[in-house]
Amino acid sequence: MFKKILIANRGEIALRIIRTCREMGIKTVAVYSTADRESLHVRFADEAVCIGPPSSADSYLHIPTIMAAVEITNADAVHPGYGFLAENADFAEVCAEYGIKFIGPTPDQIRKMGDKITAKDTMIKAGVPVVPGSEGLLKDVSHGLTVAEEIGYPVILKATAGGGGKGMRIVWNPEEFEEAWNKARQEAKASFSNDGIYVEKFIEEPRHIEFQIAGDQYGKVIHLSERDCSIQRRHQKLVEECPSPFMTDELRQRMGEAAVLAGVAIDYEGVGTVEFLVDKYRNFYFMEMNTRIQVEHPVTEEVIDHDLIKEQIKIAAGDRITGDNYIPMSHAIECRINAEDPFNNFRPSPGKITSFHSSKGHGVRVDTHVYAGYAIPPYYDSMIAKLICRAPTREECITKMERALDEFIIEGVKTTVPFHQRLMKDKDFREGNFHTGFLNTFDLSE
Q: Which residues are catalytic?
């Protein structure tokens, strides 16, 4: 087992990793930018190293500085968390070259799943259902129009190196294609320095359902059930839950088998997530694979009573997976609490938190790195907390979440708490009648 782990991340996920490491008797090293000097992950780690100014490019994304921190603290492993360098194959490769264990998949596995076209080809060969679309990247507008005509409108243009909704455009008819093509390429180039675009059939009113998987170094891959992440805005998830209200036992079995096939196809090592789109007829299609821990991992932890960070560390240390495929034992919902104004187009709301009281009680969990007096920096993601509730049934879980949201007090900045309060009372949400476009018609007026 590792003696000291450097956490190449910040905020809530860094603090989450520190807690598990402490329970496992492993020393921790926090890295931080000058903007995060007062963050709780810095206070609770055994050691902390400043790695640069607020800009991510000069701190949390700067590999030479992070490796220097590894060297001066004698860490023997690096946990990348999510975001930043978590799915950076070059960083994983540098760690390997220096004899430092990267807690995650191998560089080759990251590359296979990091490029959307390569990932899709890999899944086709593995027998995992994929959305109909182009074979490889589009050469030009004419090529795209030809493929779109073959698979039928509407279609969606996607950046091969994309994520977070960047470089994506829905096209409803041939007349819109060229303009959408140009905008998608420009955005992809600006966001990822790669303007490669491919086209897929656009699945109308889809569910976004993902499966948590884990694979060890000896070829065993299992799934740990699903999460429904369909409540999202501009492809950014706001609420996640397990089990999905759309799921059936038969669908879970088929999707779980496909998720395991995906992991086996690349000899996956570590904890990861296979994401699917599911249409209203319960046909499912591979979308992408995240080769890291995810923001919403507590949902899975609550319904199967299993520490996924601990599982990551044990797999990286060479332990074998002893369990089998899991099914949910209860219901869990996670609400992402962002420092944003939901009634003003979710505009970011950085600033100083003047008052903070987190929810408590049986079946209520809060993962956060903020506190009263903490100044939310404007440089990073606006998520400041995750509120997770667990109960025997979905109805009880929603009722518990309503109570927990009412107790969650954050003053000094705007947050998404009022949005979540309204969502929990929505009839369609409570009945499970929603899809990824649900918020497009949701009333967000004050």
A: 292
